[in-house]
From TrEMBL, chain A:
Cellular component aspect of the GO annotation: nucleus
GO annotation, biological process: ubiquitin-dependent protein catabolic process
Subunit structure: Component of the SCF (SKP1-CUL1-F-box protein) E3 ubiquitin ligase complexes.
UniProt function note: Essential component of the SCF (SKP1-CUL1-F-box protein) E3 ubiquitin ligase complexes, which mediate the ubiquitination and subsequent proteasomal degradation of target proteins. Controls sulfur metabolite repression, probably by mediating the inactivation or degradation of the metR transcription factor.
Locations listed in the record: Nucleus
Name of the protein in question: E3 ubiquitin ligase complex SCF subunit sconC
UniProt lineage: Eukaryota, Fungi, Dikarya, Ascomycota, Pezizomycotina
SKP1 component POZ domain location: 9-71
Species of origin: Penicillium malachiteum
Leader sequence segment: none
Keyword Nucleus: yes
Family assignment from sequence similarity: Belongs to the SKP1 family.
Automatic annotation (TrEMBL), chain B:
Biased composition range(s): Pro residues: 1-10
Region (Disordered): 1-80
The keyword Repeat belongs to this UniProt entry's keyword annotation: yes
Polar residues composition-biased segments: 25-34
Any single GO CC term annotated in Swiss-Prot or TrEMBL for this entry: cytoplasm
Domain of life: Eukaryota
Name assigned to this protein: Leucine Rich Repeat domain protein
InterPro entries on file: Leu-rich_rpt (IPR001611), Leu-rich_rpt_typical-subtyp (IPR003591), LRR_dom_sf (IPR032675), LRR_domain-containing (IPR050216)
Keyword annotations: Leucine-rich repeat, Repeat
Length: 102, 528
């Protein structure tokens, strides 16, 4: 799996069944997902490449995925544009971010 | 009444003051003239005179001013011409010596016109204050001839309600009193009300034993208007030179409302128990004098330096406070040599400093301002950045990361400083900060949340209450700081009140200023 890491995609599944497919590296911005997908950890997720996040619903997970992509892109930028977060979701996002360690 | 044209009298010099023989006049003007005697206003003199200039006659029939007495000199009193005013038949001599006494009696006559300079008129600008008291009395005296008839006796009772107005109006002013409030707070409110009402610019809340500043105490001061100036300096500004003295209390922190007073010029929080000065102090752009001495401060906010540069702050009194000494603290970068280079090239001493960090006492001794000959260089007047301390980094939740410089420097650098992107937590908290609903969430609401989130939401709420905070490096609004470091600045010229530059070779006494960055890349310029 290590060799093909860059081209691998993983899918994040919300509690209400929404599935978001992200590049492996992008998903690994989140510490929790990185540990889930760590090949040495021998979790079921690391083999299937599919993370079911029971605590997060689809609307929030969409924002989370947006953020993961945003963060991955901004990794080597010095002047990072701001990402807009819908205000009504901010509390859920704080909790999701706490869970995902982002 | 002086302008009433009298019948032609026998031609003689009539002394003024006949008005005093008149009957009692309406007591309103009596009361006002009673209070008026303490004031001088050049308008009073002519308030009841005809509007045209008084006619002047050079030397009508005064023997002393005739040519035959020309050499008599002033000893005989001939040097002074007599002045006449009014019609020739009703002419009166103005005796300059008797002027003041006459003027007082003249004011007994109610002209029916309320002049702007009239004190009673100035009070009537605040109708809510004395509407029921003063206005009604006025009406009564106008309508009821009995009262105006016995006005002399009524004088005492008229002065009384006037002086009693502060107590009455304090109840009506917009500051709301909560019923279960400590005595100190109530007393502070009454002082502020009093100042508001009288238009006093100096709010002295010193030695009140205040432990906190009650909510709603200070915002009305933003609207404080100076008392209308007396006729002397006619065009002076009504904007007050607002000064707040909170010295000698037991304040643990300063209320955010204090920093909303953008007109504040002087602030003294001397002798309190403050442990930190909030960064919101940068909102006090007109602040000129700041006294934070005798507190428990171990550092100052970096934003204070902005007030030197972009604000009006000229006089800072920061010592004594338990500030750490620069020689006791870890210093990452010394900036003295750089400043030296900008102003004068002979800077070898400071280069030595940065190398001899292991001998702190020597560093301190040689931390001096550059030597100059005659004219102090511009840098002698400004704050000097002496040194920068090491950076403390925080994780996404605002907990300090223990940075072991030997082993994990590379990994921490990779994990925490490579990305300038804010964390999702941070982004969500920023969105939360902008949300007006956050003001209405109570502590109970927050307590119901997941325990991991509570400190973050509380932090967001605090930041929102303070009006947001901006990263000192990238100027973005942020909630959770990710980096923190101390900068040492020497502010000696400002501590002198900006009156005197640093002398040649003066010892620098740098103060610690704490600075925050919003992301891992917001670090001191020397690090980036």
């Amino acid at each position: 799996m290590d060799s093909s890491k860059d081209s691998t995609f993983v899918s994040l599944v919300s509690c209400d069944g929404f599935e978001y497919i992200l590049p492996y590296e992008t998903a690994c911005v989140s510490g929790t997902i990185r540990r889930m997908l760590d090949p040495t950890s021998n979790f079921a997720e690391s083999r299937s490449g599919r993370c079911v996040l029971e605590e997060i619903d689809g609307v929030v997970l969409e924002q989370v995925c947006k953020y993961l992509v945003y963060n991955y892109r901004a990794k080597n930028m010095t002047n990072v544009p701001d990402m807009d977060v819908p205000a009504e979701l901010c509390l859920e996002l704080v909790m999701a971010a706490d869970y995902l360690d982002v | 009444m002086d302008n009433e044209v009298p019948l032609p009298p026998p031609r003689r010099i009539r002394p003024r003051g006949s008005a005093s023989a008149r009957g009692p006049s309406p007591s309103t003007s009596l009361a006002s003239s009673f209070r008026k005697t303490h004031r001088f206003s050049r308008f009073d003199d002519c308030s009841s005179q005809p509007s045209s200039d008084p006619a002047l006659f050079s030397s009508d029939d005064i023997p002393a001013s005739g040519l035959e007495n020309y050499n008599a000199g002033p000893m005989t009193g001939a040097g002074r011409k007599r002045r006449y005013r009014g019609t020739w038949w009703g002419e009166k001599v103005i005796d300059p010596k008797r002027k003041r006494a006459d003027f007082k009696e003249k004011r007994n006559v109610d002209s029916g016109v309320w002049m702007g300079s009239d004190e009673s008129g100035a009070e009537s600008l605040l109708p809510s204050e004395d509407g029921p008291g003063w206005g009604e009395d006025l009406l009564k005296t106008v309508l009821d001839p009995k009262i105006s008839g016995k006005s002399q006796g009524a004088l005492g009772s008229f002065v009384k309600p006037l002086t009693a107005t502060p107590a009455v109006s304090a109840m009506q002013l917009p500051i709301l009193k909560t019923p279960d409030e400590s005595e100190e707070h109530q007393f502070a409110r009454s002082v502020v009300n009093d100042c508001l009402e009288k238009g006093e610019e100096v709010i002295d809340l010193g030695n009140f034993n205040l432990r906190s500043i009650p909510t709603g105490l200070l915002p009305p001061l933003q609207l404080l208007t100076k008392q209308a100036p007396l006729a002397e300096d006619f065009f002076s500004s009504l904007q007050p030179f607002l000064s707040i003295y909170l010295s000698g209390n037991s304040l643990l922190e300063l209320h955010n409302e204090l920093f909303e007073l953008s007109l504040l010029k002087v602030l003294s929080v001397r002798n309190n128990k403050l442990q930190e000065l909030p960064y919101t102090i940068q909102k006090l752009r007109s602040l000129e004098v700041l006294n934070v001495s005798v507190n428990r401060l171990t550092y100052l906010p970096w934003e204070l330096l902005q007030l030197f540069e972009h604000g009006e702050l000229k006089h800072l009194t920061a010592c004594p406070n338990p500030f750490p000494q620069i020689e006791d603290c870890a210093i990452k970068t010394w900036h003295c040599e750089r400043i030296q280079k900008e102003t004068e090239p002979k800077s070898e001493r400071y280069d030595l400093d940065s190398e001899s960090e292991c001998e702190p006492e020597q560093i301190y001794e040689s931390l001096r301002f550059e030597e100059y000959e005659d004219v102090p260089p511009p840098s002698a007047w400004t704050a000097i950045h002496v040194a920068t301390g090491p950076i403390t980094r925080f994780d996404m939740e605002g907990r300090a990361i223990e940075e072991n410089p030997k082993s994990s420097l590379v990994t921490t650098a990779c994990r925490f400083s490579s990305s300038a992107a804010p964390s999702l937590r941070e982004l969500a908290l920023r969105a939360m900060c902008k949300h007006p609903g956050l003001d209405h969430t109570t502590d109970e609401d927050i307590a119901e949340l997941s325990p991991f989130v509570i400190p973050l939401v509380q932090k967001a709420k605090k930041v929102r209450a303070a009006g947001g905070q901006r990263c000192s490096v990238c100027q973005k609004e942020y909630v959770i700081p990710r980096t923190e470091w101390l900068e040492w600045w020497d502010c000696t010229p400002y501590e002198n009140g900006g009156k005197r530059p640093r002398t040649s070779g003066e010892i620098l006494r740098p103060l610690p200023f704490k600075r925050f960055g919003c992301s891992g890349t917001c670090v001191p310029a020397s690090e980036a």
